[in-house]
Amino acid sequence: MTGSRYAAKPWLALLNDAQRGPVRPADSLVQALRRSAAEAPDRACLAYFDGRLSYREVDELSDSVAGHLVARGLERGDRVAILLQNSPQFVLALLGAWKAGAVVVPVNPMYKSREVAHVLRDGEVAALICSDRAWESYLRETAADSPVRIVLTACELDFQTRGDARVLTFERLPQAADAADLTTVARAGYEAPGTRYPGPSDIALISYTSGTSGTPKGATNTHGNIMYNAERQRTGLALPEAPVYYALAPLFHITGMVCQLGACLNSAGTLVLTYRFEPGVVLEAFAEHRPHYTVGPSTAFMALAAHPAATPDHFSSFVNISSGGAPLPPALVEKFRAGFGPYIRNGYGLTECTAPCASVPPHLEAPVDPVSGTLAVGVPGPETVVRIVDEQGQELPFGEQGEIVVRGPQVVPGYWRRPDATAETFPGGELRTGDIGFMDEQGWLYVVDRKKDMINASGFKVWPREVEDVLYTHPAVREAAVVGVPDGYRGETVKAYISLRPGSDTDPDELAVYCKERLAAYKYPRQVEILPDLPKTASGKILRRELRSRPQSE
């Protein structure tokens, strides 16, 4: 083999060695849930603080959600947006929508009104399932100018700290007249329409990602895409029977959806949920539930390691820990192992390949490239071909840097109603990631840079143009350019360079707050620098690369 193509035969052998029994294919997670409910009906499927839901209960409750949606007029193929944190309600809404034959549109709860509005309109969303507080505070107004005709709300979990005691309270707002209560619906005993259950080629998710342009596009993850990676997770992690997963990654994100929830349902395991990330609560969950596996961005492990209560015992139950979504520094891997025991295994994937396409096998450790100091992200999975190509699409030799392209069962068929973007990103069905990397002769993949201007802040992707568009609405801003700059905690953070209109006056803090009020928390610029003028080409295009190379203040 002269090029950098790698089809992962050694990795497949390692997978087979680690498998717990035969491969168990399923058309969808709905079928996997049914199978697990038949095999272990009384086993805890979901653990939420002190609460438990068995597989039988999750199956029956999500049946009722499906029946309610159909009774309200939801049709097969309609889109259902879910805007919830890591809670049982998210899982019941997801499974219920799928049982109703719908396509789920997971939405980041950090999104502000303008961001949600784009998703609702672009996805032509028919039903919205959200927290009661989000509905009352801004989503009712947002949804009014959208195709949404069915609304279910769920009581959200409030986390409060009183001295040293953590108090968890469910604050239920008065039930809105224009929305049904999800918990009431789940307990109503509706029958699910069995004829609507999805097949492997049906779209399961429209996962919005900025991709290669400023406007978020919906990647169409099929049920087959999800099941491939859910089965790969079940067989490739060397976990015990009935494994316990901790949901460190958010379920609205493709990593949490597939590598935690999907893998759990497919293996009849237990998924531990704790609403959203708070290091102290996470450590308490580790101590109580003794999970075998979790996956999250490197920033989460930095926060856990820095918590004063963290001890090696908190991590002693883990058989495997994975990191993905943000660069994993080799120094963090070693520091974490020295302090707490486990080795964190790297991984690589995108929304467009339904989470992982490369990862570190369970009995190996990722090498570090001696030249760049980059930690390998893993080797490709079975049936997955990763190539490194030049600008003309020609394969490059091992060790040479080029664009990473992926072909395999996890690669989505394209973007929602974007044929031009689909043709550009998936020529011949092969995903052009826009990421720059290389392979060594053993098949280890290294990601060293991005071809795109995308900023990766704590595993969340930020497109500069979206932030710039908000900055340009400020009356004092003349020019704006947004770039990613190194950050010891987030990997990258968002920085905005601004020039002002003549006679205008503002300051960096005011501009940052302005963006914070209009963008999700991970998108607004943590750093703002005002310059007399921004560097440009002769044609007037702002030179982002020159701004990236500017010295950064300490």
TrEMBL record:
Start and end residues of each AMP-dependent synthetase/ligase domain: 33-416
The protein in question is named AMP-binding protein
Q: Which residues form the AMP-binding enzyme C-terminal domain?
A: 466-541
Gene3D superfamilies, A to Z: 3.30.300.30, N-terminal domain of ligase-like
SUPFAM superfamilies named among the record's database cross-references: Acetyl-CoA synthetase-like
Q: Which domain of life does the UniProt lineage start with?
A: Bacteria
Originating species: Streptomyces spinosisporus
Q: What is the lineage of its organism?
A: Bacteria, Bacillati, Actinomycetota, Actinomycetes, Kitasatosporales
The cross-references to PANTHER family, in alphabetical order and at most eight, read: LONG-CHAIN-FATTY-ACID--COA LIGASE, NONRIBOSOMAL PEPTIDE SYNTHASE PES1 (EUROFUNG)-RELATED
